[in-house]
Design goal:
With 458 residues, the chain is an alpha+beta fold. 55% of the residues lie in helices and 15% in strands.
């Protein structure tokens, strides 16, 4: 190859070298999405302005290239303009605020600063707002820091929203889950009288009513209960097993009602905190739920339909277990009910029942229609129950394996242990009393009293 032919590749490499170098620099400067991001917000209405203070890790503002010193720390003398850029791109558009249901204009930036991980000013709402505002007024957004890295720094920002009434009902809709792979946020509302409400959630929770009215809480938890039962395949399979062999509406009402009363009882008990706090308790309940499905499916295969139509006591007993399962979904959300705990609990339970009835309204007529067209309704019951038993058996063994990874000791002091035992005994006594009190109603619905009277007459 002669020199003339070599000139073209050499010239091409010479032209591409700056671009390749720039690309390498860009790749080196790229920032990965943080695995876990903790976000703190404090909301404070005052006069004609609502102030919202948000604290996020600086590393969550990924595409902002903050200047660094040779030792890898932030160049604090040049960081201020880039903080403004990061706020406009990553934070301000991601927070919506509502006053009495009306969306407010996008918040304006009132102040900002950098803080160290050891800063505790957010513990007091008054100190938090004053500290950030003071740092901003003195042109010291870095809070007199001397040395800090991008990974260590926290960004505090005050956003301000014009409002008409500081006593109005406010709501926030944060959309900040994009800041990390997993974002855990805490929101505190400071009311004009000094009272506070706190909320915690993962990801983007939708609109949060910070001080909801009773009907707002009821609507939220009604929807939550309805969607929870529709998404709870294990609860639905249990109800499905209950109704597979039943061909009459009165026994069906008795069975479903017994299940409803029982899970409502333990759901209310759990909502008020009368449940074990041990780590093994949720896996235990999940295992028992799967076991309840296996039991009901096997019973469908082994026992005649006439007996299964009077199975409301079994439905009641297992309903107590399923109520604890419902409570796990409810406990994390009760914080959004504000001061309306009873209303939220009742609405959630109604939502669960509506979802359950919606499923039964579809499933039961289909089962009755199919049973009327097959040669053996008993064979249909066996086939369907065997299919359910197969799936739930795998759930039971998987959940049981997870359960036995925990230390199943009661733990704690003897006083705590005996308090838990006493609570369990009290719940069992109440459940027994409720079942005994309603037994006459359930027996009449299921036809047990009628069949016993006929037997005595013959």
């Amino acid at each position: 190859m002669n020199r003339r032919h070599l000139r073209i590749p050499i010239l091409t490499l010479a032209l591409l070298a700056p671009l390749l170098l720039l690309g390498a620099v860009r790749i080196g400067q790229a920032h990965e999405i943080p695995q876990r991001v903790a976000i703190n917000m404090v909301v404070r209405p005052a006069d004609s302005t609502l102030q919202l203070l948000v604290r996020v890790p600086l590393e969550a503002l990924r595409d902002v290239e903050f200047p660094l010193l040779v030792d890898g720390s932030l160049d604090l003398t040049k960081v201020r303009p880039l903080l403004s850029e990061g706020i406009e791109v990553w934070l301000r558009p991601g927070i919506r605020v509502f006053e009495n249901g009306r969306a407010l204009p996008a918040g304006s930036v009132g102040a900002f600063r950098l803080a160290s991980p050891s800063d505790q000013s957010l513990a007091s709402a008054r100190d938090a707002f004053a500290t950030v505002a003071q740092a901003y007024r003195t042109q010291a957004p870095v809070n007199a820091l001397n040395w800090i890295t991008r990974e260590q720094a926290l960004l505090d920002v005050i956003l301000e929203y014009p409002i008409t009434d500081s006593d109005a009902r406010f709501a926030v809709e944060p959309q900040l889950a994009h800041l990390g792979i997993r974002t855990v946020s805490t929101v505190r509302l400071v009311l004009p009288d000094g009272a506070e409400r706190a909320f915690q959630y993962v990801g983007d929770p939708g609109r949060i009513e910070l001080d909801p009215r009773w009907y707002q809480a009821a609507g939220t938890f009604l929807s939550l209960g309805f969607t929870h039962i529709l998404g709870g395949i294990d609860h639905l399979l249990f109800v499905f097993c209950l109704v597979i062999p039943v061909r009459k509406w009165r026994p069906l009402v008795a069975i479903v009602s017994a299940f409803t009363v029982a899970h409502s009882l333990t759901l209310a008990t759990a909502a008020f905190g009368f449940t074990p706090q041990a780590l093994w308790f949720p896996p235990l309940i999940e295992t028992l739920i799967a076991a309840s499905i296996v039991f009901m499916a096997v019973e469908n295969v082994l026992r005649p339909a006439e007996v299964l139509e009077r199975r409301w006591p079994v439905a009641f007993a297992f309903g107590l277990v399923h109520g604890f399962g419902f409570s796990f979904a409810l406990q994390e959300s009760l914080q959004f009910g504000g001061g309306h705990l009873l209303m939220s609990l009742a609405a959630f339970n109604v939502g669960v029942e509506l979802g359950q009835l919606a499923v039964l309204a579809v499933v039961v007529p289909v089962l009755i229609a199919v049973a009327a067209r097959v040669t053996s309704a008993r064979a249909l019951t066996i086939v369907l129950s065997a299919f359910v038993a197969h799936s739930s058996w795998h759930w039971m063994t998987e959940r049981g394996g997870e359960l036995f990874t925990y230390d199943l000791a009661l733990g704690g002091s003897s006083a705590v242990m005996w308090l838990g035992v006493l609570r369990g005994a009290l719940l069992l006594a109440v459940a027994t009393a409720v079942a005994w009190g309603l037994s006459g109603v359930f027996d009449r619905l299921s036809g047990r009293r009628t069949s016993e009277a006929s037997a005595q007459g013959t």
